[in-house]
Amino acid sequence: MDDAETIDGETSQRVSALVQAQQAQLVRPDADQELLAAQLKQVHQEFTRLRMHYQFGIDEVETKVNILRQEFEQIHDYSPIEHVRSRLKSTESLIEKAVRTGGDMTIPAIRTRVHDIAGVRITCSFVSDVYWIADMLRRQPDLEVLTVKDYIASPKRNGYRSLHLIVQVPVFLSEHTEYVPVELQLRTIAMDFWASTEHKLSYKYRKNLPPRLREELDDAARVAADLDSRMERMRTEIRPMPDRDGDHQAGARTS
Question: Is 114 part of a structural domain of the chain?
Answer without folding.
Answer: yes
